[in-house]
Design a protein that fits this description.
The structure holds 2 protein chains of 2 kinds.
Chain A lengths: L2 H21 L11 E8 L3 H14 L3 E8 L1 H13 L6 E5 H9 L3 E2 L1 H4 L12 H6 L1 E2 L2 E2 L2 E13 H6 L9 H13 L7 E2 L8 H11 L21 H13 L14 H9 L5 E5 L2 H5 L11 E4 L8 E11 H6 L1 H15 L7 H10 L12 H8 L4 H9 L1 E3 L7 H16 L5 H19 L1
Parallel strand pairs in A: 1-2, 1-3, 8-9, 11-12
Antiparallel strand pairs in A: 3-11, 4-11, 5-6, 7-9, 7-10, 7-11
Helix pairs in contact in A: 9-10, 15-16, 18-19
Chain B lengths: L2 H32 L17 H8 L1 H32 L6 H13 L2 H12 L5 H8 L13 H28 L4 H9 L4 H29 L3 H6 L11 H10 L4 H29 L3
Helix pairs in contact in B: 1-12, 2-12, 3-7, 3-9, 4-7, 5-7, 7-9, 8-9, 9-12, 11-12
Classes of the chains: A alpha/beta, B mainly alpha.
């Protein structure tokens, strides 16, 4: 072989080796003598998460957490991509409206199957939390936080408009908003986070439906009662279309708004009324963030029942972790127990979230905790918060196909709000989609 | 085969492997997915279903609606990008003061990733705190903030503006290159014949730009039809699915409805449509080549 030929073959072999090296660049799965857990969350309070991870690793020196986060709006899709591509993920944040979807797909596993001790916490949870954490009789995690949608109003706006009390029904809400608009206090007094991208939008809508008389979306057999003429859902959709169109009291930006946009609109004083997860009230009344701080109060949800929707975000364990073996599962349970359960007799991490960020909790007893009452008291009427929480119900229709129906429904609801189709037609279309999905799932 | 004859094959083998791994395998896998039931929440049901996924997609509510939205967006985007590119190219072709700096400024958006430009434009158009509303309010053009992305028509227009800002520079580069090879004598001849600027443009510039314009039109049509990132960051398909173009629909089928079979079928349909456009483009180019 000539020198030239040798050189050529060296090039070929080098290229081949480079390719092999590139292909073999798999992530490290575990450190020597310990366990590495891959944790994924959405991007909220990341600095607190990292600090909690540090404390957890001190308590469990054999466990290393490899942490990554994605934005809330794209979290579901990012996780689907991770699951399908089998990107290493052991413990993660999840939400009640994805629980059944992810469990049915085999991406997350029931915690109580391997760690029955998780059940010891159940009696301390609000009823809606117990329901929301359960799928086919199994418990799928420990709570990150549990919260309710609350109705908030700018008390200063109401006072300037000569209104003595917040609205108790949708009709009163319309009248008060018209008064505020007529007096030039706010062009669009109501703002809602009903953007098509925001997973909160269906929860906000559900909360408003629950607040009405006979406010339900589905019956116990998962039949869509929202399509019935005169249903609570029809009342809400009709009200929203009227508020957005004819009355012009609902801000048009609501249809592009995520929760953060709604908060900004309220903080700026551009709007009077909003429907928010209760922890957002801490932001609204934070003097460091807005001149309107201290003016926002809780009114019970506008509607005859005053009920609302409760929701839960939780820590879950993936089937990948299960496949990695007992040591990983034990580490994963320790993580869930530390972050969502008790450490040294108290819900340390849960309480920290409440104290520092105002996040709600699954454990009803924490409403009596003096630290939490003092912290919450800075931005909310705690008794009122508790009263609304006691009226919270779990979301209905929790099935593996709820997520698909939710995405479909967001666009359908927009069509009714924009006057492109009648509310009854929108609800019929949503019901048809539900029946289709239900039939396919059988 | 002699040893030296093997050498060319051995050298292209790594590249062929990369192409096979990243192009051929995904393509074949997509075809496989499209012919099987593949709903992620029913992992055990993976039966062969033939063309059922294609039939369900084509007869479903979203397909025709998203096709219509795609056509509307493509017509608005391609027309705007072409006119913008032509205008900018003609401006940059003039020997004006600061034209070098102007070229950099005009071309800059092209270098910005589409997702970033989408986020920038979403903020600009925001109905509560957007810069555009601020400017319009200060200048008295509007008396209150306008929720640009809350209405189906204006949301589409917002997306077109963002698309033109991002894609226009490339069209301008193509057209500028074509403008710079037009012989100056032709314009002199037109001027001597007494024709004005318009006739100079019509009888000299336009015929010379024809091939490049065809390229721009077809390339931009392909880009507009395959647009996804702008929808993803600006509108999420809303309001009321007004901006849910076909690329977004394929994404939704896979990542939100978790139906890989439908998503793959849609991607294949989209691929075939784009392939057809590429063939039209190649044919048009061939027609322009001298015999």
């Amino acid at each position: 072989m000539t020198h030239m030929a040798c050189t050529r073959w060296l090039v070929v072999v080098s290229l081949g080796l480079s390719l092999l090296v590139a292909v073999d660049a798999s992530p490290a799965s575990a450190q020597a003598g310990g366990v590495t857990l891959n944790l994924v969350s959405w991007s909220y309070g990341v600095e607190i998460v990292r600090d909690n991870i540090g404390k957890f690793q001190q308590k469990y020196p054999g466990v290393t957490i490899n942490y990554s986060d994605f934005s809330w709006a794209t979290y579901h899709d990012a996780m689907v991509a991770r699951f399908v591509s089998k990107t290493p993920t052991d413990v993660l944040y999840s939400s009640d409206h994805w629980l059944q979807e992810w469990a049915a797909a085999g991406w997350i596993v029931p915690v109580d199957e391997s760690f029955p001790q998780v059940r010891q916490y159940l009696s301390e949870y609000s009823p809606f939390v117990r329901e929301a954490l359960t799928y086919k009789g199994r418990i799928y995690g420990t709570p990150y936080y549990a919260d309710t949608f609350i109705f908030v109003y700018n008390a200063d706006h109401l006072q300037r408009a000569g209104l003595a009390a917040p609205p108790a029904t949708l009709e009163e809400l319309t009248k008060q908003a018209e008064t505020i608009k007529a007096k030039g206090i706010a062009e669009f007094p109501i703002v809602l986070a009903w953007g098509q991208q925001d997973p909160f939008s269906i929860e906000s809508f559900t909360g408003l439906v629950f607040a009405q008389r006979n406010g339900s979306l589905f019956d116990k057999d998962l039949n869509p009662v929202f399509k019935m003429p005169g249903s609570a859902a029809e009342k809400v959709v009709t009200w929203a279309a009227d508020a957005l169109g004819a009355k012009r009291i609902l801000s048009p930006t609501s249809l592009q708004a995520a929760n953060v946009d709604q908060i900004r609109a309220l903080q700026s004083g551009a709007a009077t009324f909003g429907l928010i997860p209760s922890y957002s009230l801490a932001v609204l009344n934070d003097p460091g963030q807005t001149q309107q701080a201290g003016k926002f109060k809780i009114g019970l949800m506008p509607g005859e029942s005053r009920a609302t929707v409760g929701f839960i975000r939780f820590y879950a364990i993936t089937s990948q972790a299960q496949r990695r073996g007992k040591d990983v599962m034990t580490a994963a349970w320790n993580f869930l127990d530390y972050f969502g359960g008790k450490t040294d007799g108290e819900y340390r991490v849960t309480k920290r979230w409440s104290l520092e960020k105002g996040l709600g909790f699954a454990q009803t007893a924490l409403f009596a905790d003096k630290d939490i009452r003092a912290a919450f008291g800075k931005w909310a009427d705690v008794d009122m918060l508790q009263k609304q929480a006691q009226l919270a119900r779990a979301k209905e229709g929790m099935t593996p196909y709820y997520g698909t129906w939710d995405v479909f429904s967001r666009a359908e609801l927009h069509k009714a709000y924009l006057g492109q189709q009648k509310p009854a037609d929108t609800l019929a279309s949503m019901a048809k989609k539900w029946e289709e999905l239900k039939a396919k799932a059988k | 085969m002699t040893k030296p004859a093997l050498y060319p094959y051995a050298t292209i083998l790594p590249v062929m492997l990369v192409v096979a791994v990243f192009s051929v395998y995904p393509l074949l896998y997509s075809v496989h997915l499209s012919l099987h039931e593949n709903v992620l929440t029913r992992p055990l049901d993976n039966d062969f279903v033939g063309l059922q996924n294609f039939r369900e997609v084509v007869t479903g509510y979203y397909f025709w609606r998203s096709l219509w939205s795609t056509a509307v967006f493509a017509v608005m985007a391609v027309t705007s990008v072409s006119l913008y590119g032509l205008g900018v190219a003609m401006l940059l072709n003039q020997a004006v003061l600061g034209s070098a700096l102007l070229k950099i400024v005009v071309l800059l958006p092209w270098a910005i990733p589409a997702v970033i430009s989408g986020i920038i434009w979403r903020w600009i158009f925001d109905g509560d705190y957007g810069v555009l509303n601020g400017l319009l309010l200060v200048t008295g053009a509007v008396d209150r903030y306008v929720p640009w992305m809350s209405h189906p028509l204006s949301a589409r227009l917002c997306m077109v503006v963002a698309h033109v800002w991002k894609q226009g520079p490339l069209a301008a580069v193509f057209l500028l290159a074509a403008l710079q090879v037009i012989p100056a004598e032709l314009y002199d001849a037109v001027r001597i014949d007494g024709a004005g600027r318009w006739n100079g443009f019509r009888f000299v510039t336009l015929p010379y730009l024809k091939a490049t314009l065809a390229l721009v039109l077809i390339y931009e049509t392909i880009v507009a039809i395959a647009t996804f990132d702008l929808v993803y960051v600006m509108t999420g398909g809303g309001p009321a699915d007004a901006t849910a173009i076909i690329g977004w629909y394929a994404y939704t089928e896979i990542f939100r409805f978790l139906n890989l079979g439908h998503g793959a079928a849609l991607a294949i349909i989209l691929g075939v449509v784009l392939l057809g456009l590429v063939l039209v483009y190649l044919r048009a180019l061939r027609a322009e080549e001298p015999a």
